[in-house]
Amino acid sequence: MSGGEAVVTVAGEQPYDVVIGRHLLGHLPAMLGEGVRRVLVVHPAALATSAETVREDLVAAGYEVYLAQVPDAEEQKTAQVAAFCWGVLGQADFTRTDAVVGLGGGATTDLAGFVAATWLRGVRVVQVPTTVLGMVDAAVGGKTGINTAEGKNLVGAFHPPAGVLCDLAAVESMSPYDFVAGLAEIVKCGFIDDPRILELVEENTALLRDPVAAASSPVLAELVERAVRTKARVVGQDLREAGLREILNYGHTFGHAVEHVERYRWRHGAAVSVGMVFVAELARLAGRLDDDVVARHRSVLTALGLPTGYRGDRWDQLLAAMRRDKKTRGDLLRFVVLDGLARPARLEGPDPTLLAAAYAEIATEPERGTGILL
Ligand SMILES: NC(=O)c1ccc[n+]([C@@H]2O[C@H](COP(=O)([O-])OP(=O)(O)OC[C@H]3O[C@@H](n4cnc5c(N)ncnc54)[C@H](O)[C@@H]3O)[C@@H](O)[C@H]2O)c1
């Protein structure tokens, strides 16, 4: 991308645009579409000022606007918070032609999308993700949901948005930890689909460790655009996870197990980072991936401050967690592996000694904090 804005269209029954750039609120009315009168903006307290700006813009454009301030991060992905939003919609007489805007990180876009999917069996949602993870992953693709006491994302719906606005100016205020964790999903897209991403990261590692500098850089704009293109290509062909979409889970089987064993104190991206190195080692030991691609996993991720190893005394818990993961079919563990750069494939039911050997390759001493090493 050469400055300005980029637009990626996600194919499907109702195609929609993802716009990537800076200061994009002017696009919101067009994305909301014809016939919308009332808009509910769902946002956490951290984005109250931005929500007020959105409200003022939409009121000036003639909409009736309601703000729903919700708890932070995972605290908002509950049935109680969804019910609070339904209450606001009901009291304001929202009809089927009104709309919801999700303004925040992936937790907020998941919640706002779920509220929109369920109100009157589905009203429009425009997603305005404000974190890197939200932009390249959560807000694109139409998966929405909330958590229950039994686990994450157990209740939800496929509900593609009417549009997505990725305003890169928003990431300036992100914590460096959340920012770098989000980059792990971009690196994932580099390995499974678009190796130019890896070169861009390798050429710009210092810039990419600083959200303030990165926010106004064309490098971040290009990385977000490329990662969104990868996700759009995959979900455009497979909204409901019939097959291809599985490749987006590269590094996630082991990553989810790390998150579980760490009781969700690790950031998702940090866990996925370790998961990618694990599965790269697994593919190498299975004779499918060359040493240099495995080494590249370690070098790219380390350069960003992301972890590439995990404590070596947790194998039984990790294995149990992987077996419980919803990606397991029957008794067979399934992994997305690489047969080379941008050549994703499946590995089903690997020999337990191979799994243990891959774990041994990433095993470290047990004192690794929260994963990210900035
Ligand atoms: N639907 C999907 O396909 C999908 C895919 C991946 C992840 N997810 C979900 O996304 C969530 C994680 O997303 P996340 O990492 O964005 O987390 P998040 O939404 O919890 O945001 C992380 C933190 O950053 C704050 N924040 C958000 N934007 C900010 C900004 N611009 N400046 C300062 N602070 C800001 C939030 O208030 C929060 O405290 C998880 O719930 C996960 O399940 C969904």
Largest sheet: 7 strands, mixed
CATH architectural label of the largest domain: 3-Layer(aba) Sandwich
Q: β content, as a range? A: 15-25%
Topology order in helix (H) and strand (E) letters: EEHEHEHEHEHEEEHHHHHHHHEHEEHE
Helix content: 40-55%
Distance between the termini: 28 Å
What would your notes on this structure say?
With 374 residues, the chain is α/β, with parallel strands linked by helices. It is built from 15 helices and 13 strands. The protein has a seven-stranded mixed β-sheet, with helices on both faces. Helix 11 packs across helix 14 and helix 12 runs antiparallel to helix 13. The chain is globular, with a radius of gyration of 20 Å. The mean pLDDT is 95. Bound molecules: nicotinamide-adenine-dinucleotide. Nicotinamide-adenine-dinucleotide binds next to helix 4, helix 5 and strand 8.
Summarize the structure.
By secondary structure, the chain is of the alpha/beta class. It is built from 15 helices and 13 strands. The chain has helices at residues 28-32, 48-60, 79-91, 106-118, 132-138, 176-192, 196-203, 205-208, 211-215, 218-237, 252-261, 268-285, 291-303, 315-324, 352-362, and strands at residues 6-10, 16-21, 38-44, 64-70, 99-104, 124-129, 143-148, 151-158, 163-167, 310-311, 334-338, 344-348, 363-364.
